[in-house]
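Supplementary Methods. Inverse-folding protocol.

Structures were first reduced to a discrete structure-token string of length 227. This string, shown here, constituted the complete conditioning input.
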């Protein structure tokens, strides 16, 4: 009996689980440079004369626990990174559930003042990386000594392979009231802090980034071939 090397993407394609064109897009768009951006501590307080500003937003998800991410970059400075909810490690993970009916977390982060853009999202789920297929842009501004709410991202799982997420839909909306309520609960020293609404009230943008693509990062498989 001989063995034949086949890529896992070929196997999935053969059973019509994924569009090969989307796999190619996934390979390109999954190469996103940046580092995970940390939240401030639970006892953080914001001073009006601070040299940094405070970003407030949320990442929420339905479906299996994975690493749900949105990527940002500075337009007037060199800062870049990503915000993450859940965990990309399917075997050993610790994840927060800041919202009663959804997975996810409130993002509360200090940033250098300036103009920023969120222009990419991704999901790291074990060996699978899910990413967008179309460009999008969500811009926001951070001011020194001020707290700015930038909106909420909701990841809805549309496809999976076991516990591995292989497809999502991403919506962006204004969830100011809900998210600020969570902020007051988790960060008691920010209870009296004014939060500037940096997103249009009641705004909702569905399916940002278009349909998702998936890239499977796995070693080649050896499959027996009968002759």
């Amino acid at each position: 009996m001989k063995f034949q090397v086949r890529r896992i993407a070929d196997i999935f394609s053969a059973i019509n689980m994924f569009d090969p064109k989307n796999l190619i897009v996934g390979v390109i768009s999954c190469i996103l440079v940046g580092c995970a951006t940390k939240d401030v501590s639970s006892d953080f307080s914001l001073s009006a004369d601070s040299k940094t500003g405070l970003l407030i937003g949320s990442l929420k998800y339905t479906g299996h626990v994975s690493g749900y991410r949105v990527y940002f970059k500075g337009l007037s400075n060199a800062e870049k990174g990503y915000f993450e909810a859940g965990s990309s490690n399917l075997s050993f993970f610790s994840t927060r559930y800041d919202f009663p009916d959804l997975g996810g977390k409130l993002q509360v982060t200090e940033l250098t003042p300036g103009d920023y853009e969120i222009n990419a999202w991704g999901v790291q789920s074990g060996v699978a990386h899910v990413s967008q297929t179309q460009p999008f842009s969500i811009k926001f501004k951070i001011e020194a000594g001020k707290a700015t709410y930038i909106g909420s991202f909701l990841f809805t799982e549309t496809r999976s392979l076991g516990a591995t997420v292989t497809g999502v839909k991403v919506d962006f909306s204004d969830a100011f009231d809900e998210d600020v309520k969570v902020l007051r609960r988790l960060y008691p020293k920010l209870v009296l802090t004014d939060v500037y609404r940096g997103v249009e009230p009641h705004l909702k943008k569905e399916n940002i980034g278009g349909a998702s693509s998936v890239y499977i990062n796995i070693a080649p498989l050896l499959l027996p071939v009968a002759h």
